[in-house]
Amino acid sequence: MDHKIDRLELPKCMDCACFNLRKAARAVTQLYDKALRPTGLRTTQFTLLVGISMLGAVRVTRLAEIGVMDRTTLTRNLKPLERRGLIQITPGNDHRTRVVTITDEGQKALEQALPLWKKVQADVVKRLSQERWNSMRADLGEVVSLVSKS
Amino acid sequence: MDHKIDRLELPKCMDCACFNLRKAARAVTQLYDKALRPTGLRTTQFTLLVGISMLGAVRVTRLAEIGVMDRTTLTRNLKPLERRGLIQITPGNDHRTRVVTITDEGQKALEQALPLWKKVQADVVKRLSQERWNSMRADLGEVVSLVSKS
DNA sequence: ACAAAATAGGTGTATATACTCCTAAGTAAT
DNA sequence: ATTACTTAGGAGTATATACACCTATTTTGT
Known about the structure:
2 copies of one chain form a homodimer. By secondary structure, chain A is mainly alpha-helical. Helix content of chain A is about 65%, strand content about 10%. In chain A, strand 2 and strand 3 form a beta hairpin. The interface between A and B is large, with 64 and 64 residues.
């Protein structure tokens, strides 16, 4: 019994949107994480700190929605930040909720990380060209909204 | 001491290439994983099976390179496939190497998964439009090659 | 032939991701 | 007021990801 899959079918799978997006995400993550390494922050953590700092005080579920991230994923991603004292998680007025805020330590870490992020971001955008990155970012947004409506 | 970060600095971070790529990757992964769920395969696993099936017999490091994936990540990603008997890992002629091959079980799983993948892929491409996906895929490839040359 | 260098790969550890199932607390129906 | 429903969130489990460090094997320089 030879396989029933046509030899021409499998190469098509290299066009997989999920594979190509994940691959690109892995690649840039390595680049950004390396750039942020002196701060001890991963890019995921940096992004969370930025969001928390901007929002002031935010519920867990809301923060998860913004990142198109599962709520339970966010809970786990907050752990290392809390352990390092960069954020605080306290019960909200609605006693079901938990509110996340950034600490002074967190602000300081953010100040330290910001110039490193700016450098690697500028480098990536420059090498892609600003136009290409603009259209790419729009496309990525389209992908996200497409999935949200599923 | 009020924070020294200009109020206009943080919103710029929402343009982060890493954040936007990871976010989009999370979104599509949820879509594809859901589509493949009846097979018990995650999209990552499906992609690996496709690659292994196409390449016939491939060394661990080579397979990792193709996916722009850390070698040790691949090692761990192969584990669930091996445990389910979908692939085999055997020592190569060069006794340092390990060669990965797909099993009959793996071929069968692939046959089962292929139409489900085709459906979700076609759906995504259609909703994005073929043109947009084409340009997007080219952009993603550009990102990967950009990072590889760092 | 043998020591040094290079190569292939795995383990330990830590983070990232999400599904299923569970508890607690608020809200609505009667 | 009490029950039913809904909402917010965590815990258990499993996969995904990669860095630092380790071992084993091959290649290379002499």
